[in-house]
């Protein structure tokens, strides 16, 4: 599929901001199945300085600083993205999950070594018994990893309520688990934490999902949103994406932005400012399919 | 010790109780009781001094340390809770040849870590080639993803490196820990050396030991050369977490010794991809930061978002090549205790050399064999838990259950655990009330980058520690002597000029924050003075009156002056007297907010923040004041309270006198002075208001208090030789511009200081503070003196003195605003940076 993704973030501050430093992770990375022929980023007011780099995980990061006094900040990113179908289905054969726990630790193969860092705790993810216990019904002895992981995300989809008013970035996973509600971010974090609690490697993926209008209705522009899911490392298959919020394996309709250990590694727009006071945030995302 | 041994080296009483080493290594004696060669000259020299002399020298050294404020304490305040650092008068001598081996090992270790850092934050070949397990690197919070590829190839990661060393039972030196983020201790080592050399001049003058100063000179040169394209006169600053930091003394000391500006995160700002220092004269570019803030706290944009110690955008500036950090961000990765078992292999791989300096035996539980060993020997090991909440667990302190729980945790997440052998460090003689005792010793050694390699400090900081761990706070420190073939010339950076000096006079490169602290140092100091004077009058009257007095004279007015309340009182005159005494003495109470101790804390806090701008003598006076307050019981007796106040007034006068005599009369001093006189003029106006406008009991008794409080009673009597007359008092305290206690004088002084403050370039109009002081001066100049005299007479006869009340109010208003105007116009409002999104 071809998409034009437009992501606009606007901050309006109550007070005046004298100086701000920001990092944007809003430019989609290229992958084996995703091609990004064009990506334009417009920042208002004009930054005095901006510099793009590739971070440790291979994501595109734009640093920029605004040094003139301002009261609004608008960042608009427009990307052309081509997403190819991925040849992965939940019923592909994979090794038993216990074997993978061993394999990851011992495989000298390069990508397994890279995967090992994704078995550890991170800012938002503290593996623990409680999480392992939640995962275990899916991880019966000898069950192939992909099947088990897919079952885990399916259970999260079935047992949890999508509730945009329940959680914030700071809501701890234990509370999400207890209340059985949250948003895509929470579900991705939860699945990752479950997998890591078992000794498996899992990472957090940020991106977008094309939303289809109800049959007969017009597509609403700007009504889409940022999305998040996860990927699990399976020897032989590599990193396999899973979307617990939509009970599916991401395919052509999932546009990947960036990945990392958890949300903290891939926050779309970070900033530190001097002054400003309270602010109002306005975000709009539009994932528009383009004719081929 | 046997008679024969005592004869072999006639050191008599010193060694009377010194034990023969049985199962460990001792620095002084061999197991056979022979003196080790390094001590062959030192011990007889010490013995020749004799126990009494040594005790005196010891006391002298402690006094010097105390007065210089050498402490490791985090929250030093007037409450006396600081833990002093004591220095042992017995140095630890290390033979020159033996040191050469240690030195080679230290230098190699620094080279190895530099290569390792460049690899971990670059191509990561040691992970790819399986020499180091990736999860070991990632399990340690010191590895910063944000620092990856932040330095171009060839730039230094590790400029300073500290290594904790101890000698094991077999006599070999072992590395116990590495310090790279903010390796403190070199300054303390230098201070210990200087202190001991001052208290035992003969011993130190003749000793063949290697001097430390050249090491610090190398630090200075290295820092100046650190930028990719070093400017002619690079601006190097020392970034400290601030006076709350345990090692703040060292930061101030090093900044002074190396002639660097001592700055805090809020003093710096990143603009245009560079780092700038906010000064009175505007922004001044910073080329190099000697960093004593630990990695994670340095940049709230990319690292810990809740840090207020760092500088937002610092990493971006580093990547941009706009600033060089010593050490670079991310170096904490080599503080990972789990690296130790891998160092021999890493050394062969990265340097092609065998590792010279062994580390303490360590096991990473990510490997099966090691894990089994650790699980079987938990009771004898120290276990480091890595990860986001690192901690150190002493296996020997755990019971059966605790060990089982730990074992379960290790099995669940083995990669997070590293175990270390517990060691009992070698013992060395330590001075203990007139004799030598054997105590276990740990060393902190230092290296600094130099050209292509490293150079080790020819000496170290040694301290007494039972298990070789770094307690890091207080305790007994020792000077380490690295022996040289012959006495070495004494050099100090403090007396050396570095190349041609650029003469600068008026420093508008003073950090704004420093100006702010000096201003408040002046205000708090003067506030203490004013309060102490009023309280002294109150205590004097309490002593005169006695508990049965029917009439408490002007004590109720003094209560008002001090802003105190008596509350309900029962029990007639006696009850009233006791209540008054209790309320006045409560001023010495620790819990009293706005009491004397609270005000002094404010003074000390601001003083500490500008430690590098105050002379050593002023600092000593401030320390004396702190000690005097700390030693005072709360509450003290009336007599003791008054005596202490007398002493404090003298010390304050000495402090500000020394500031006036020793601080260059530039911007810094001007702000101190403005702070003092803003406070003083406000207090004087308030006092006149009390005496002539608001008094419960106007009259001679109260006027006497006013004159005594302003130290003008003598002046008045000399001038008028008569009974107190209100018009004369008013003239003396309000109008007489030659009297430093008069409002007129204070306004003139403030006006002069304010005129000379830096102004924004091109400003054509009077600044807010200039307008305010002009307003106050004009009000006073236009006052109707005749009417004032009448007004004062009214006051004398108990009528309302409207004219005077009006004038004092007119004076108060602009002066009250003045403080705010000065702060607003000149100090960086260290506004806390805020996050766009709060993560946690």
TrEMBL record, chain A:
Keyword Nucleotide-binding among record annotations: no
Gene Ontology biological process: proteolysis
Pfam families: Bact_transglu_N, Transglut_core
Hydrolase is among the record's keywords: yes
Transglutaminase-like domain location: 176-246
Gene3D superfamilies: 3.10.620.30
A GO MF label: peptidase activity
UniProt entry keywords in alphabetical sequence: Hydrolase, Protease
Entries under PANTHER family matching the protein: BLR2979 PROTEIN (PTHR33490:SF7), BLR5614 PROTEIN-RELATED (PTHR33490)
Protein name: Transglutaminase-like putative cysteine protease
UniProtKB/TrEMBL annotation, chain B:
Pfam family membership, one: Alpha-E
Stretches of the chain forming a coiled coil according to its record: none
Domain DUF403: 510-827
Domain Circularly permuted ATP-grasp type: 91-464
InterPro entries hit by this protein: ATP-dep_Glu-Cys_Ligase-2, CP_ATPgrasp_2, DUF403
Protein's UniProt name: Putative circularly permuted ATP-grasp superfamily protein
Lineage of origin: Bacteria, Pseudomonadati, Pseudomonadota, Gammaproteobacteria, Candidatus Competibacteraceae
